[in-house]
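Re-running the complex after MR caught last week's input typo. The corrected sequence lines follow. Everything else is unchanged.
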Amino acid sequence: MNQRVAKLLETIDEKSEAIPYVHTLTGRDPGKTCVIFLGTHGNEPVGLYAYEHLMEYFAQHPLEAGTLHFIVSNPQALKNYASASTVDEQRRSRFVDINMNRMPKDHPRDSYEGRRLQEILPLMEAADIALDLHSTSLPSDPMLIPLGATEEHHLQAIPVETIVSGVGDVLGEQFLLHYAGGYPGTSCASLLVECGEHEDPKSISNALHSVEALLHLHGLHRFPVHPTPTQHAYTVVRSIFFPHSSYCLVEEFGNFAPIKEGDLIATGDGPPMFCPHDGHTLFAFQGGKPPSIAEEALFLTLPRVTRTNR
Ligand SMILES: [Zn+2]
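Corrected-run output:
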């Protein structure tokens, strides 16, 4: 049982108006509309923890301009996470019916997540900027994943060292963020930040620094700016699915671990799987298996490129 998550969900629901589990702050001056997604995956409470800190801050320093919506993307999955009593139950609380970052284009209403998307869609369509806060099952440095109409200055403003582009292209148009600004999200700057390991306190500060940088950049609030370090950019070119549930990765490949063409990736009741090109591995699941074979077991990137910011 995670009381902190349960309590934060209750708080946001109490503050909600027209739509459940959406807390809206309005700035003193007119300005842009920003949506921040918390808990798109139920087993990733980092966004809720960042929300808790931001509310303490905004109680003393009210939002200066624009509109800020904190949207709990998947309330039921987070409730399941909050009431989970084993690590396995926590893992299974990632979503209820469908993964919100693998939404089919016609987002069917007969799933819990499809209905939730319908509910929050009007807010998403009116957004100028969208940020989705995630965390990872394995220890990891933070990663910035640009989607939609994200431009160079957004990448430079977020104090995250690692940029991973191309994920949206590899998956097709199926991220929750693709609906921000109106489907297919071409009018909205959309950023996904993987903040670090699920319950690592550093993940919360990474989430906070990303929110602060984005709100500062778009004039919603003047936060002290954290300098952006030299950034390393990786381009995802391939996702690996298992052909059968018997398959397992031959090791828990770390994020950005280098891999060579021809290296063994996975084995199971069928032919072994090998790496088709040089690059790096990304987003392996703990234990070397995704929760279902409908999910990617591993992503592969091209070799990294270094970007020096002034
Ligand atoms: Zn996630």
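None of the earlier attempt is carried over here. The first helix runs from residue 3 to 15. The CA atoms of residues 65 and 219 lie 7 Å apart.
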